Amino acid sequence: MPLFATGLFTFGLIFKPAAAEVLFERTSAYHQIRVVDEQGIRTLSFDGSFETRMSLQNPLQGHFEYTEYFHMPWIWLNLSNVLMIGLGGGSTQRSYQHYYPTVTIDTVEIDPVVVQVARDYFSVSESSTHKIHVADGRVFLRRATNRYDAILVDAYTENRYGSFLPRHLVTREFFQMASDRLSTNGVLAYNVIGQIYGQRANLLGAMHRTLKTVFPEVYLFPAGDSQNVVFVAAKSRLKYSASLAQQRAVWLVQQQRFSLPTFTRRAGALRTDVPAPWSGSPILTDDFAPIEGLLKQGTD
């Protein structure tokens, strides 16, 4: 912190930011979980990786940018019900409950400790429109009988080699199951940590190519403050560009359907190019999904 005025030197006053405070720490069956407060921001970490940020002053602020791309399904259709696989600190669930109070949300989280932490430390609550189910996301989806307008996936797991996407949630068979549980023009939004070009491009290439075996159109929404890229896979064959998506977003805002401050700007981040090297990326299946290997590959 810079020092201002002579008084600071005269009296020897040095102001330091408050030290980080660990509120919770436990190893569950799936993660080593920590909750830390520092400089007005509460952070949830799994196995040393940051999962959720939240402003202590306003729980609707302080979140990671990529979570706002889970609002993009509205560009394709008006949502009435949503399934989200992965809870974390509930940034997306909090915003949906605030901005779209009539939308029904089913959240599926495999780790009961994460559910308790989200409730105790991140203002996540159940209501008549939000239900939390402790289960494996694919098992829940296979047993589901209703159809969803959007399925949102934000799930990572951990082993001794680091964080990676769960194999059974990245395959053609899983994507086909998701498509079968979506409404006519429903969309799947999926968070992946990677890059469109360069390091980790192979992972995005494999995800894109696999999604295209099931969905007619696949789009990318890369975050500006991290390596998160949210895929949006649409059942509709209508082709969108960034300008068309932004026009649709402007119209929705003008209709007073949205109060998310960044909705129009986020819509303009849509990209239609494919990750490189797309043609050489594998199609992921239940029999072949080398996620850990793809994380270590990339092109310069």
What are the key terms here?
300 residues, alpha/beta, 4-stranded antiparallel beta sheet, 9 helices, 27% strand, disordered N terminus
Task: Please give a quick description of this structure.
With 300 residues, this protein is α/β, with parallel strands linked by helices. It is 26% helix and 27% strand.
Could you explain how this protein is built, in words?
With 300 residues, the protein is α/β, with parallel strands linked by helices. 26% of the residues lie in helices and 27% in strands. It has helices at residues 5-11, 91-99, 112-121, 137-143, 172-180, 201-212, 242-254, 263-267, 291-295; strands spanning 21-27, 32-38, 41-46, 49-55, 81-85, 104-109, 130-134, 148-153, 157-159, 162-164, 182-193, 217-222, 228-234. A hairpin with a 2-residue loop joins strand 3 and strand 4. It is globular. It starts with a helix and ends in a 5-residue tail after the last helix. Residues 1-15 have low confidence and may be disordered.
